[in-house]
Amino acid sequence: MKKHISIIALCAAAAFSLASCTDDFLEVKKPDGEPLEEYYTTDDRLYEALTSAYAPLHWPDWDNKAYNDLTIDAEILGDDFWVGGEHASDNLHWHKLFNFDGNGNNTLATLWTDFYSGIKRCNDAIKYCSWGNGTQEARTSIDAQARLLRVYYYNILWHYYGNVPFYLENLSMPYTAPQLQADEIYDNLIVELEDIIASKVLPLRWKAAEAGRVSQAMAYMLYAEMVMYQNDTARYPQALSYMKELIASSDYQLNPDFAAIWKESGEWCEESIFEINYNDDQAQRDWGDAAINAGGTVLPTLISPNKWPGGDGWNTGEDGWGFLPMRVETYDMFAANDLRRDATCWDVRGVEYTNRYQDTHIWLAKYRPFSENNKDCPGSKNLNYNNNKRIYRYAETLLNAAELLLATGGSNSEATGYLNQVRQRAGLDALGSITDEDILNERHLEFVGEGKRYFDLVRTGNAATTLVPDKYGYRTNSWTPNKKHIPLAQSELDADPTLVQNNY
Predict the structure, then answer these.
(1) Is residue 56 classed as helix, strand or coil in its secondary structure?
(2) Would you say the C-alpha torsion 464, 467, 471, 477 has a positive or negative sign?
(3) pTM above 0.85, yes or no
(4) Ramachandran sector of residue 32 (left: φ over 0; alpha: ψ -120 to 50; beta: rest)
(5) How far apart are CA 206 and CA 405, in angstroms?
(6) Residue 34, exposed/middle/buried by CB under 10 A (0-12, 13-18, 19+)?
(7) For residues 164 and 179, is the Cβ–Cβ distance under 8 A?
(8) What's the distance, CA 116 to chain centroid?
(9) Which residue, 157, 142, 159, 151, is CA-closest to 52?
(10) Is 291 helix (H, G, I), strand (E, B) or coil?
(11) How far, in Å, CA of 236 to CA of 224, rounded?
């Protein structure tokens, strides 16, 4: 099967300067138009190509075409939040997917564009390194980072769409690539990931000045995520060994204060394995060119109250758009003494503001807006909050290890010890022994609003019994196995009629 990649023409590699992965990581510098063979001849210029490959990580929240922040995309499919917004047709694609009623015109179309752009840019960086210019040390590192980023981009496409075009070298006319089945995508990616890990090129953790680069630890977490989602039990022992290596390392540990993780000062703390950097310092993102310029994120604006009256660290006149209100049941599932509750749930019941659709007056505290978090932005403040997106945390390492131990016949007491570290950090009593259900429940409490819950329900076989019509009449359809992969965009089907739509 062949697929027309309509985004290729849009993916000419914009060059960036990668001095570090804090603020300078996102500064744009335009190349001077030299032929590629004459331009990518030094370490600095090879790093420009690599930074261009990192850039699409920042795009999904607002890429000039649609809002598809990965937090919202995943959470509206689960059971912890409503879609919200101004009304039931506001960002209709989210409302349709929430009700398992999506179609080619109401799907996460721009994720396809964003991450195939990333794949193209990774391929560029890999190709430029293969020309042999620059130092061997730089080429080796850039190649490994670009390959790992490429697996990450494909991993997201695989999670959502399943059956997607796959290629490891950039396409030429007529820009077609085989549309592989989801299992084939996995088989290709996991072998590539194993090779990257085996090379041991990347450090387990980068120095603080380089925070933002993909690392060996990030590769371990991606590996565990993929094999567990695929239920690839033959690879569970290897995934477990990677989790144990992280646990044995001094590079990562739990932050003693769960609430502190979500503050700006908590970014890249001892618990953080991978984050996507955003910053408000001299942020250049604006409504016409968000995917071109560097800066912050619109997520806090998307998921906060409308016409806020002021207080609680957010100034009068600040405006949220009311997407992703938290279900009351989500707040209620936390024990009163669970320290994660107030760090996860921004409970503003009793505060008067302009209610929007499905508003519960409870919001996601992890990414809530603070005026402090966009004060340094000179332009569009609602688009430039500095909240980094947390992708992998050490808490997930511990819970992965616990689950993999039980799945491989390992020690229940060892698995219980890992889970209890997470519980006790939350102020809860330790458990004596654990079951798979205990682990799933702990993951639910720990990762609310981090995009994990829906995929946990799917991979553990609990989606069909959990994602069912609610008593409020908002979700009227049930999840069924054919809903695992969302529809491909109609624009892609129109571009190539041989592309097979998912049976959604």
Answers:
(1) helix
(2) negative
(3) yes
(4) alpha
(5) 28
(6) exposed
(7) yes
(8) 15
(9) 142
(10) coil
(11) 8
CA 280, 281, 287, 292 torsion: positive or negative?
negative
486 DSSP 8-state letter: P
Token output for 69: 């922040």
Listed residue (194, 389, 365, 158) closest to 274, CA to CA:
389
- C-alpha span between 321 and 341 (Å, rounded): 23
Give the integer Cα–Cα distance in Å for 93 and 85: 12
* DSSP 8-state class, residue 316: T
Residue ranges in 29-135 assigned as alpha helix (H)? 36-39, 43-54, 70-75, 92-98, 109-130
Per-residue pLDDT of the chain (504 residues; tens, 9 = 90+): 222 222 222 333 333 322 233 334 333 344 556 688 889 999 999 999 999 999 999 999 999 999 999 999 999 999 999 999 999 999 999 999 999 999 999 999 999 999 999 999 999 999 999 999 999 999 999 999 999 999 999 999 999 999 999 999 998 877 879 999 999 999 999 999 999 999 999 999 999 999 999 999 999 999 999 999 999 999 999 999 999 999 999 999 999 999 999 999 999 999 999 999 999 998 989 988 888 888 999 999 999 999 999 999 999 878 899 999 999 999 999 999 999 999 999 999 999 999 999 999 999 999 999 999 999 999 899 999 999 999 999 999 999 999 999 999 999 999 999 999 999 999 999 999 999 999 999 999 999 999 999 999 999 999 999 999 999 999 999 999 999 999 999 999 998 888 999 999
**Total length of the chain:** 504
Give the burial class of 459: count Cβ atoms within 10 A of its Cβ; 0-12 exposed, 13-18 middle, 19 or more buried. Answer: middle
Encoded tokens for 30? 């335009």
Cis peptide before 487 (omega within 30 of 0): no
Residue 22 Cα to chain centre, angstroms: 18
- Cβ–Cβ < 8 Å for 85, 91: yes
Burial class (CB in 10 A: 0-12, 13-18, 19+), 440: middle
CA 308 centroid distance within chain: 28
Q: How far apart are CA 475 and CA 260, in angstroms?
A: 34
CA distance linking residue 151 with residue 149, whole number of Å: 5
User: Cα(449)–Cα(74) distance, rounded to whole angstroms?
Assistant: 9
What does the block give as tokens for 137? 């040390």
- In degrees to the nearest 10, what's the CA dihedral of 471, 476, 482, 488? -130
Alpha-carbon distance of 28 to 32, in angstroms, equals 13
